[in-house]
Amino acid sequence: MTILVTGATGNIGRHVVRGLVGAGQRVRAMVRDPRAARTRLPEGVELVHGDFARPDTWPRALKAVERVYLFPYAYQEPRPAGSGFTEEAVAAGVRRFVVHSAAAAGFAPSDDPSALGRHLEEERRAHRGLETAVEATGREWTHVRPGLLAARALGWAGSIRAERTVREPYPASGYPLVHEADVAEVAVAALLTDEHLGAAYTVTGPAKVTQAEQVSAIGAAIGARVRFEELTLSQARVRWLAEGCPPEMADWLVELLAAAVEGTGALAPTGTYEEITGRPPRTFARWARDHAADFTGEAA
């Protein structure tokens, strides 16, 4: 059996590939640049050039494939009905899809006019649209819906390496950030067993971790004191815009942080990972240790 992993060099996709290889599976990775991907993926993985925006690359990627880990290509330019990757996959003989979705796909439709409300509704529609397209194929499916990834903290890597400082608003804001390896383990279980067919799993970390706590955990992981310097909202917005962040995104980022100062905003912790694996989910401290080299420069 050949399993195709799309998005294979991403935060989660890399762990899906490793998990499948560790289970003795034949894995094909669809990537834009096979030469660059070779250094990021295990030996024995078949690398095939493929791009969701280029249908001419799909047949080779899908040849003799039975199961697909499907990256959310719903954000690609819309295509005429019947010309999408899922239809091509079914025509090629794919029998099972495990969809890399998002927690927002499980949210109720909303007409919240705030910047964050509009963003979440756009995300919900895109990811739920892909889920629905897969369900409509009549093939086996499982949807894996990660919450906010701990990997968001990699955005601080540059300032931590250079100054041992993180500058953000709302130090008490936080979500139940999930380790990408936890999401991948759920996806691998869905690819390899029949126990999760027809399920939609929202996967989060075990508990809320504030921004200040994240910075502290990263400092502990690298053996250095990392300062959290609180910015005002206006200071944060000016910095984000200067870094190239679109104004609409800056607006919803502020609202995302503000929504989780008290509580965890729209996303409470779930017990999904433990229910599926029998183990507690990895903590943010574990994630920080696993990524320590990213914050010291050793990973470069």
TrEMBL record:
<dbReference type="InterPro" id="IPR051604">
    <property type="entry name" value="Ergot_Alk_Oxidoreductase"/>
</dbReference>
<protein>
    <submittedName>
        <fullName>NAD(P)H-binding protein</fullName>
    </submittedName>
</protein>
<dbReference type="InterPro" id="IPR036291">
    <property type="entry name" value="NAD(P)-bd_dom_sf"/>
</dbReference>
<dbReference type="InterPro" id="IPR016040">
    <property type="entry name" value="NAD(P)-bd_dom"/>
</dbReference>
<feature type="domain" description="NAD(P)-binding">
    <location>
        <begin position="7"/>
        <end position="192"/>
    </location>
</feature>
<dbReference type="Pfam" id="PF13460">
    <property type="entry name" value="NAD_binding_10"/>
</dbReference>
